[in-house]
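Summary of Year 1 activities. Much of the first year was spent building the evaluation harness for sequence design. The harness presents a backbone, in tokenized form, and records the residue chosen at every position. We chose the following record to illustrate the format because it has been used consistently in internal testing since the harness was completed.
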């Protein structure tokens, strides 16, 4: 299954010259670990917005069709985002919905991630083809082609989709329903960060608030250790500190504090706040001991200090499992989400991680002046004021990303659901059911299923009135 990349002749010369992305452990809560050869390829356009460019490339997708009843079953478009796309597991929530409604799930890998590589490398020049707009257009072309294919194959009306995604794909799910209502009739946006924010200090504020649920000792012990480490660095012991954290090189101070802040942030975002804080509480009130525990915690969590440096992100060679250079580009070019120190309350992150650090960081990584115009982007996609219907926004109460999502609204056409419980964090509703799930999480999933059941029936009714692809958008006006 070799990927063939056809490059526009006009571009050949150029081609030759916060972390929001989910960790592996988070990915495996949602998806199969080993998909082997159980995937397919779709021939996708390189640039949907340039009529002079006919270049194409091969985009990977998965197809879960064993539960589908073509006559009445919905189509779920599972949006993969800032990482290698894995097949949704049989116990994941999206497949649970497919089973309940006799649906079919197709999962499309995002351009520039995993095996879906449209260019020969990750040079800054080539990354101009990595935008949310092009990612959404990929979804539109793919979904439309599959609807046409299924209609011809099974003799059914042209079928619109339900989009499902979590985190950045959660935002894409909402944006897709907003931008392409003739293709998708409903959306589930789990932890969907629809508000592009450059100076995202609210993230750090939420880390403090979430860890404080375990008692103020938890964030305070982390802050004390951070300040202790900062004094060591300021006293000329930076290389000793970096060595303790498994790195023998050097970094800009802000890059180290980016890494250090992620130790607490990752625990909260990943839904392991209670375990993290319990372990901290068991340590003596000795900053040296806490520092070494944090170093051990980072190693066991798979966090590499070296990978937080701008130097490591300059590597333009494609490496399928990696995603840091690509996702960082998306934040630097379009979306922001830079995790700066708290402006309200006590900061958990270093004070030298303010917005000027991130401006310099983006330039040092990509070699050009680049920084997101989030006002421009939000103007086009609506941010928290987007106007659409049949979108469910779910957010865990402890998730630091919820402040970029929609948790409250006066718009009756949007359904916000905040899941309030211990360790309810990023994309928690998309995970598999568990006997230990909090009642609030069980109730949220039940509410999602109820809305989907109603919307699917409404769509089937409108299909009978407007069955063709040309008429599909008219279904928006059928009650």
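For this record, the design step produced the sequence shown next.
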């Amino acid at each position: 299954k070799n990927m063939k990349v056809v490059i526009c002749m006009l571009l050949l010369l150029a081609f030759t010259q916060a972390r929001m992305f989910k960790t592996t452990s988070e990915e495996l809560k949602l998806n199969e670990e080993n998909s082997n050869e159980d995937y397919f390829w779709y021939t996708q356009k390189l640039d949907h917005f340039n009529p002079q460019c006919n270049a194409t490339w091969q985009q990977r997708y998965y197809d879960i069709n064993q539960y589908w009843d073509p006559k009445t079953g919905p189509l779920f478009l599972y949006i993969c985002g800032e990482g290698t796309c894995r097949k949704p597991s049989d116990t994941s929530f999206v497949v649970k919905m497919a089973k309940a409604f006799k649906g079919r799930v197709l999962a499309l890998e995002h351009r520039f991630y995993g095996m879906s590589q449209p260019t020969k490398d990750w040079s800054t020049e080539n990354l101009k083809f990595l935008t949310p707009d092009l990612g959404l257009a990929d979804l539109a072309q793919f979904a439309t082609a599959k609807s046409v294919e299924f209609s011809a194959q099974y003799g059914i009306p042209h079928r619109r989709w339900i989009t499902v995604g979590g985190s950045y794909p959660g935002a894409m799910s909402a944006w897709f329903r907003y931008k392409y209502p003739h293709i998708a009739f409903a959306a589930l946006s789990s932890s969907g960060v629809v508000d592009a924010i450059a100076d995202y200090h609210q993230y750090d504020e939420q880390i403090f608030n979430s860890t404080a649920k375990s008692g103020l000792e938890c964030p305070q012990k982390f802050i004390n250790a951070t300040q202790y480490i900062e004094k060591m660095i300021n006293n000329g012991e930076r290389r000793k500190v970096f060595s303790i954290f498994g790195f023998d090189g050097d970094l800009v101070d802000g890059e180290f504090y980016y890494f250090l802040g992620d130790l607490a942030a990752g625990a909260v975002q990943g839904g392991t706040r209670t375990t993290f804080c319990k372990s901290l509480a068991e340590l003596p009130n000795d900053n040296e001991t806490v520092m070494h525990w944090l170093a051990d915690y980072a190693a066991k969590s798979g966090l590499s200090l070296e990978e937080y440096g701008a130097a490591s992100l300059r590597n333009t060679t494609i490496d399928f499992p990696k995603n840091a250079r690509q996702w960082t580009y998306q934040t630097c070019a379009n979306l922001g989400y830079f995790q700066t120190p708290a402006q309200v309350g006590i900061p958990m992150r270093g004070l030298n991680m303010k917005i000027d650090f991130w401006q310099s960081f983006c330039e040092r990584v990509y070699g050009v002046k680049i920084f997101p115009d989030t006002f421009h982007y939000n103007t086009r996609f609506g941010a928290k004021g987007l106007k659409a219907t049949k979108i469910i926004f779910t957010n865990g109460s402890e998730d630091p990303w919820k402040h970029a999502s929609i948790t409250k609204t006066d718009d009756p056409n949007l359904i916000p659901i905040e899941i309030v419980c211990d360790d309810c964090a990023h994309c928690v509703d998309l995970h598999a059911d568990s006997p230990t799930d909090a009642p609030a999480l069980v109730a949220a999933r039940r509410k999602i299923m109820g809305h989907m059941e109603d919307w699917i029936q409404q769509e089937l009714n409108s299909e009978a009135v407007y069955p063709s692809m040309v008429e599909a958008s008219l279904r928006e006006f059928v009650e």
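The first helix runs from residue 12 to 16. Quantitative recovery figures across the full test set are reported in Table 2.
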